[in-house]
Amino acid sequence: MELEVRHLRALCAIADAGSLHKAARQLGVSQPSLTTQLRRIERALDGELFLRERTGCRPTPFGRTVLGRARPLVDGMAALVAEARAMACGPRLRLGSTASRALPGWLRRLHRRWPDTETSLVVDGSPNALLRMVASGQLDVAFVHEVEGSPLRVPTGLEVRVLMEREPQFVSMSLDHPAAARPVVELRDLAEDRWTVDPSVDGEWDGLRRVFAVAGVDPPVLHADYHTATSLIVSGEAVAPCQPTSGPRTDMAIRPLAGDPLAVRLLLATRPGEHAEAYEDLRAAYREAALSAPPYRAWLRRHESPLLVAS
User: Fold this and answer.
1) Closest CA to 285 of 80, 111, 77, 33
2) Distance between CA atoms of 106 and 109, rounded to whole angstroms?
3) Which positions of the chain have pLDDT values less than 70?
4) What string of H, E and C letters represents the secondary structure of 38-102?
5) Contacts of 29 (CB under 8 A, 6+ apart)
6) Which helix (H) or strand (E) holds 112?
7) How high is the pLDDT of residue 296?
8) CB 248 within 8 A of CB 129
9) Closest to 129 (Cα-Cα) out of 6, 281, 26
10) What region, left, alpha or beta, does residue 152 occupy, with left being phi > 0 and alpha being psi -120 to 50 degrees?
11) CA–CA dist 302, 100 (Å, integer)
12) What are phi and psi of 88, to 5 degrees?
């Protein structure tokens, strides 16, 4: 078998995801198909690239060497394709973001600033994947979050601007949950609840687990995607961390956690010296989203946040 860029891309996806299951989902293929492809690549290279363990996959020393040569080739091909398309299509702004209530306001401001520029948006649960896409030229800008205690792997050469140094994560629960009657919720009051978290989002499960350990609680945890989690919360089957800009909703209560034990840092990544205006528009859009969420607005006032002062 002759190695192609798609094979190298698969190896990088496995290494980044840490498991064949997650990598297959990112690549849009079945896990058995990716496993077969990996075996064929290993036969072609005459060496084992990954150690298969109960908790996932990790590169062998030989695998690390191959990945070190593969990544520049994959990134270079992605950059070539992205730049060629950009030249063919005229002015374009390619945005990436993790989920955020600030996105509609950000897009509206960017369209107003550059009405003749075609704007595209990629929403991904993996901040690390979005950062790699900026580094490889597939995206121009990425708005990402970094879970406290789980640093992102920022590729060399990117410029990162901090939007919020520490955004508290609130908790969402059903309207009839006993804790919903209080303006601020103690973590220990939710110790008997089932919690739900999406394990595919970089750092979120690790961050939540650290908070539980510090608080000395060990609640049951359900792993679910965002849409499934919403149904579980509304029906009273689970509670979950959520962005403070969430809401207001008529079917769910959103409350701050006492002491703000869970937090993220909000970042905008670009190539050096590019798209400073996108940062200013994002800051204005985030402020608009924050002030439209009553629990977060109250939190910002209690903490005398500079976000309350319009720029």
Assistant:
1) 111
2) 5
3) 85-91, 310-311
4) HHHHHHHHCCCCEEEECCEEEECHHHHHHHHHHHHHHHHHHHHHHHHHHHHHCCEEEEEECCCCC
5) none
6) helix 103-113
7) 93
8) no
9) 26
10) beta
11) 23
12) -75, -30
- The CA angle 18-162-149, to the nearest 5 degrees, is 40
222: three-class secondary structure by DSSP: strand
For residue 179, the cross-strand partners are none
Closest CA to 230 of 217, 243, 239, 219: 239
Alpha carbon of residue 221 to chain centroid: 20
Side-chain half-sphere of 298: how many Cα atoms within 13 Å?
8
CA torsion sign for 274, 277, 280, 284 is: negative
CA atoms within 13 A on the CB side of 14: 30
Nearest partner of 86 among 134, 128, 139, judged by Cα:
139
Structure token pair of residue 103? 């996105």
pLDDT above 70: percentage of residues in the chain: 96
CA distances to 18, 69, 78, 80, 98 from 75, rounded to whole Å, are 19, 11, 5, 9, 21
Indicate the pTM of the whole model: 0.72
Looking at residue 229, its pLDDT comes to 87
pLDDT at 74: 87
- Rg (C-alpha) for the chain, rounded Å, is 21
Long-range contacts of 15-21 (CB under 8 A, 24+ apart): 15/50, 15/57, 15/59, 15/63, 15/67, 16/128, 16/129, 16/132, 18/56, 18/57, 18/58, 19/56, 19/57, 20/52, 20/56, 20/57
- The predicted-structure confidence for 81-99, as pLDDT tens digits, reads as follows 777 766 666 568 999 999 9
Predicted local distance difference test score (pLDDT) of residue 244: 95
Q: What is the pLDDT of residue 85?
A: 66
Residue with tokens 């010296």: 273
Bond prior to 219 in cis (omega within 30° of 0): no
Beta bridge partners of 94: 120
